[in-house]
Here is the input.
Amino acid sequence: MKLLIVEDEVKTGEYLKQGLSEAGFVVDLSHNGLDGYHLAMTERYDLLILDVMLPDVDGWQILKSLREADKTVPVLFLTARDSIDDRVKGLELGADDYLVKPFVFAELLARVRTLLRRSASPVAELSLSIADLELDLARHRASRGGKRIHLTAKEFSLLELLVRRQGEVLPRSLIASQVWDMNFDSDTNVIDVAIRRLRGKIDDNFDLKLIQTVRGMGYMIDTPDGNS
Amino acid sequence: MRPPTSLTLRLTLLFSTVATVVLLAFGWIIERSIEEHFAMQDIKELKVIAQAVEQSLSTLQPKHDLKRVKQRFDDILVGHHGPLLYISDASGKLLYSSPGPDLSLMPLPAPDQLSQGDIQQWNDSKHNYRVLFQQVAGKTNGPYTVIVAIAIDFHLHFLKNFHYTLWLMVICGIIIMGLMSWIAVRQGHRPLHRIVEQISQISANELNTRIDADTVPAELTELAQSFNDLLQRMEEAFTRLSNFSADIAHELRTPVTNLMTQTQVSLSQARDANEYQEILYSNMEEYERMAQMIGDMLFLAKADNDLNPLNAETIDLKSELSNLFDYYEAWAEECHVSLTLKGDAHVQGDRLMLRRALSNLLSNAVRHSPADNKVAVTLSHVDSDVLIVVQNPGTPIPAEHLPKLFDRFYRTDPSRQRSGEGAGLGLAIVKSIVEAHDGTIVANSDVDGTKFRITLPGFVNLANRK
Here is the structure.
């Protein structure tokens, strides 16, 4: 998977590049709008990450020109400006997602993966599994090692999210927004409590612990060997 | 657009116009009455003569001595101011004519009007006269035609002079009135200029200055008062803003100090990878806290400037709260606090913002509720408004803290500042969201616990407005 980052802030750009490279992506970085635009026009990328505020050509302008040239590559905007108008403008121009600085890196990673997955053809799954954990999506049932586990509706949604994105670190904000539709930071440890309870049901009676805490970033479900 | 004409000019013009109209009317009336007076005087004299003539004619014998008759009429005219008299009998034969202009040349009015004592003005080439025509029945040879005239040149002359003097005075009067009113208006505006001077001297550092309402005229008291109120509000806002900036600086200084100290200490000697990792994790938490505080402050700053657009829709508060209960349930259970919801209500509002406000209130209530208690949310209608009450048991908050609960960075217990309960902006955000929805929020606290009461304009209300 090949990504292009257009970010004029040198330090931010370098860290993003490093982070995304370490997450297994091939990353190109451009520090100004014009170079970024030429790269995007000439090279083939799976995703563009554009800063809105650029010194020469702003992110919107790049996106507009790309869409006019029939480039359908997914675009994720980064911006320090958080107003609904900006967001609407970006999405109207054909941006696929929008992230406000400062953001948690895990959040960016999760969204990048979502966008990449979206561009791949979606498959309607009936069941999900990791190791010996199985989720029956149609009947909302979970079982581990053949043993039925009783979960509340929200616990099931939480587990489904984790299993669907197994191997990915999901930040608390993303979990809150995906499972409970709470799109703002809470100053409570609600997510930690929910995960703890889920762990109690999924992992406590098994030797193989599936739900992992990634300190400072969030939670993920994975097998110890990491081959998900 | 042209600025409106100056007040001084306007008032001066107004006063001058009024003065002009009054003086003109006054002059006109004086002139008319003097003219009238002269006319009455003349007419009275003419009538006296005519009466004497009539009496004389009535005693006139058919066989009269012309010379005696003439003498008799001459006598009548003596003592008056040179009147002229002409008498002819029915056949038109001249009976008497005083020396001077020939009155027989005058156009006679129609005979049937003559007895009425018709009075006319007449002038020959040199003089003006007032003339009385009368027909008098005599003993013989009647009726006689009597014409009496007196010269009125001196009256007319006087009137002409008076006319000039009068109008000169009127014009002078108008000019003087204009000048006086200009001076008076300027003088009258002096208090206004004084106030302007006082106001222009108020700088940002002297917002506590007030205009002394007792030293301004009654008409300006209101202006001074409302200006003082404006100053009051500005001063409050200014103080709040300064305090807010100071608070921000203070709130940011603590995490920055932590980060700096920690980083400096860790760099002071070589450590192994695990230790570095620990330090970075710890830093991460500080960063996250700062990022959240910045986000919250940005939200409040935008709310202050009305920059948070409201996507108004109908919101089922019951289901919204149920979702929030779902979200907080596990956490509340860990805190051994249960959540209850009573009532049902719909409001018009921004879903995300109201959710955020309710979420802040709920987490606040759960956090301050002692274990094995319940947080109760009640929805109800009061008139057309919707009332949301969030109640939690707990130690009463002292009354002096209650109004300040919604202030930014305000904490009832300063020592609990950094016990992981956010930056102290939660309730400030609740308040700004409620106010953005034209609602109000009050807190009260007693032995039964703490209650937050939100009043929002009701759904019914908004539906009726359509």
Q: What stands out?
A: DSSP finds eight helices and eleven strands in chain A.
